[in-house]
Amino acid sequence: MAEADDARAGLESSPAPAAPDGAASLPPVVVPGAELEVFHTGAATPEELPPPSGGEVAAPGSLFVRTARIFMENKMAVVGLAIIVVAILFCCVGPYFYHTNQTNAQLALFNSQNAPPSGAHPLGTDGQGFDILGRLMYGGQRSLLVGFTAAAMATILGVVYGAVSGFFGGWLDALMMRFVDVLLSIPILFFLIVLSAIFHPTLEILIIVIAVVSWLVPARLVRGNTLTLRVREYVQAVRVMGGRRGRIILRHIIPNTIGTIIVQATFAVADAILILAALGFLGLGVPPPEADWGSMLANGVNYVLDGYWWEFVPAGVAIVLVVVSFNFVGDALRDSFEVRLQQR
């Protein structure tokens, strides 16, 4: 009993351990299997945290910034975009600085026919006396107008058609896609010649004809994306909440295929310019005295053996440069919208 009292008295008289002077004096507690040391003083700051393991960190910035960054890395696409801008300015702004007659065939007869390049006519004149440089601007306006308008019409029609087909599925999807397959089985050039022969070729008719044969590919692409998107959780959630089918297609399906739509629209512009050039080469383009690059090329081919290179080389170079530039831009946009490339 006395020994117990002596031990209790010794404990009470012994000094208490000193309080820790800051958390730095305490050893860190290391969690097994982790690389982060947790201190008693609090959590680590965001700057001290190591990068997460298991993958690379996505590039900072908005979607537009990441898309533009990847696009700018493609030098050929940047050059192609510059050529497209120059071509548009050349065709639309150039006539305001370089005034020529391109509509009055009688007035053009006062010029020398098939004249070589000179100070008065930098690219010479054609067989009707029209200035080639001014004709290149005038014909480029028609070619670019048909290209952009026909591509826009074809893309809108194809997107709506493909989204409806893929969203509803079943027998309706099978019927709509078989109709597309039937049209795709018809040779495009033959189909264009038949339509151009039935309807008198005006600028408006050519736009509609080219759009009619150009909406099939966008429809198939959007339909394929829609088959994947319609089973996503957010689409199913809208269905459960009672969302209308039309609203789901317009607000949730089509906006999530915007990458495919933009890329395909870019290629559609190049295809429309090529189709118009082919029709113009066959004599089914815009009626004279109007002109497009294809009809200029067709008229110039008649003078190949005469050595009048200025009759066909400028139009041919313009077609090749613009079409190839649109293809380069389309390839770069396709890479830019690729999610895996945005996370490099």
The name of the CATH architecture is: Orthogonal Bundle
How many helices in DSSP terms?
A: 15
- Please tell me the total number of domains: 1
Order of helices and strands: HEEHHHHHHHHHHHHHH
Q: Outline, from the CA principal axes? A: elongated
The percent range for strand residues is under 5%
Residue ranges: pLDDT <50 for 5 or more in a row? 16-26, 30-44, 51-60
Strand order of the largest sheet: 1-2
What assembly state would you assign to the polypeptide chains in this entry?
A: single chain
The largest sheet is: 2 strands, antiparallel
Query: For the CA atoms, what is the radius of gyration?
Result: 34 Å
Helix content: 55-70%
What's the CATH C level?
Answer: Mainly Alpha
> Mean pLDDT, nearest integer?
79
Secondary structural class: mainly alpha
Give a count of the beta strands, DSSP E runs of length 2 or more. 2
The CATH topology is given as MetI-like fold
CATH superfamily: MetI-like
Q: Whole-Å distance between the termini?
A: 77 Å
Report on the structure:
With 344 residues, the chain is mainly α. It is 62% helix and 1% strand. The chain has helices spanning 2-13, 63-73, 75-92, 105-108, 132-168, 170-185, 188-198, 203-214, 216-229, 233-240, 245-253, 258-281, 293-301, 313-336, 339-342; strands at residues 29-30, 37-38. The chain has a two-stranded antiparallel ribbon. A hairpin with a 6-residue loop joins strand 1 (29-30) and strand 2 (37-38). The longest helix is centred in the middle third of the chain and has 37 residues, at 132-168. The N and C termini lie far apart (77 Å). Residues 16-26, 30-44 and 51-60 have low confidence and may be disordered.
